Amino acid sequence: MEFKAGQGSYMQKQLKEHVAKYICAFLNSEGGTLLVGVNDSGEVLGIQCTQHIEDLLRQKMDATIKEIAPQVFPNMYTIDFVPVCDIAHVPLENRKVLEITVKQTSMSSLYQTHHGHVFVRRDGSVQGPLKASDIQEWTRMVGSRLTI
Questions:
Q1: What b/e sequence results for 111-141 when a residue is b if at least 16 CB atoms lie within 10 Å of its CB, and e otherwise?
Q2: Backbone angles phi, psi at 124, to 5 degrees
Q3: Which residue in 51, 52, 85, 120 has the most C-beta neighbors within 10 A?
């Protein structure tokens, strides 16, 4: 599970690149979840998110994921907006956590971002973009399940 606070200009300036990076890493590993609106210490902050913003973010995430190669099918991931609640479990108005979950794949392909960058999740962190030697090592690690 990876956390991003999602505050300030993050949603406009960094979200697209982080989604591409983490989705590729999860696809090239054993799946995973990216939570935007949660800081590195696990504190739930939420992101400001009206229904209109949620719809725009869904479109942006789907478009970003469609740029990943090889093709990522809709059944390989989910995008959810989880309401943030106060201490009394009352939902806070327009505060949500963006949750992108990638299912574990057969790892028969090596996924790359629209920039051609390859990322993997190894030892609890996302690594990359990988160099050719790193990709060769990764290919040896996963064996015959991977085709480039």
A1: bbbeeeebbbbeeeebebebeeeebeebeee
A2: 80, 5
A3: 120
Give the integer Cα–Cα distance in Å for 18 and 107.
21
Please answer whether residues 7 and 37 qualify as being in contact, where contact means their C-beta atoms are separated by less than 8 angstroms: no
Dump pLDDT digits (tens) for 95-121.
999 999 999 887 678 899 999 999 988
Question: Could you report how far apart the first and last alpha carbons of the chain are, in Å?
Answer: 26
Q: List the beta strands (DSSP E) in 23-148.
A: 32-36, 47-48, 77-85, 91-102, 120-122, 125-127
Class assignment of domain 2-145? Answer: alpha beta
Q: What is the value of pTM for the model shown?
A: 0.85
46, 92 contact by CB (below 8 A): yes
Cα distance between residue 100 and residue 112, in whole Å: 17
- Domains of the chain, by residue range, sit at 2-145
